[in-house]
Amino acid sequence: MPEACTIQFGKNKAFFPRGWYAYVGSAMKGLEKRMARHARQEKKRRWHIDYFLEKAQVRGLIPMPSPRREECDKSRALEEIGGIVVAQKFGSTDCKCKTHLYHFARPPMMMEDFRTALGIPTAPTHTKSKGA
Ligand SMILES: [Zn+2]
Fold first, then answer.
1. Which DSSP letter does residue 108 get?
2. Per-residue pLDDT tens for 50-66?
3. CA distance 6 to 3
4. Which ranges in the chain belong to alpha helices (H)?
5. What is the C-alpha to C-alpha distance for residues 91 and 49, in angstroms, rounded to an integer?
6. Which of 34, 50, 82, 91, by CA, is between 20 and 30 Å from 27?
7. Tell me, what's the pLDDT at 121?
8. Cα–Cα distance, 34 to 62 (Å, whole number)
9. Strand locations in 4-111, DSSP E?
């Protein structure tokens, strides 16, 4: 998020400080399509994240294919590593999570904790090892 701003999403509204954010979503079918959609500028606004992305720039998309819905587990993992809740119930109106969008002071992709929490390989390229 290049500049702090207030965004209305659904019935809620929140102030988003400038900085880095990580959002967890799921698309049980059509993961690639959903990710391409998040990266695209032109679209009808449907989900909370669409409103957020009107103001923010997508810096990275991480596919995490899974046969089951894991977004809430991943979301909690992000809170545990220090993700800050700035918008209550953002993207989590259908579940018990406080939010599915977390604010970070530093670029989360550079944080070892972040990659570990999400179970993504430490090295962004080549190696497929799951790490410990
Ligand atoms: Zn959730």
1. G
2. 999 999 999 999 999 99
3. 10
4. 31-39, 48-53, 71-80, 112-118
5. 7
6. 82
7. 75
8. 12
9. 5-9, 12-16, 20-23, 101-104
Rounded to whole angstroms, how far apart are CA atoms 3 and 53? Answer: 12
Cα-to-centroid distance, 89 and ligand 1 (Å): 9
Q: What pLDDT is recorded for position 125?
A: 55
State residue 107's pLDDT score.
94
Q: Separation of 83 CA from ligand 1 center, angstroms?
A: 14
- What does pTM read for this prediction? 0.89
Q: Which residues of the chain have pLDDT under 70?
A: 122-132
Q: What are phi and psi of 111, to 5 degrees?
A: -90, 125
Q: Any bridge partners for residue 81, and if so which?
A: none
Residue 79 Cα to ligand 1 midpoint, Å, equals: 11
What pLDDT is attached to residue 122?
67
**Token digits for 35?**
């990710």
Q: How far is the CA of 70 from the centre of ligand 1 (A)?
A: 9
Ligand 1 centre from 126 Cα, in Å? Answer: 31
| Residue for token pair 């698309």 | 27
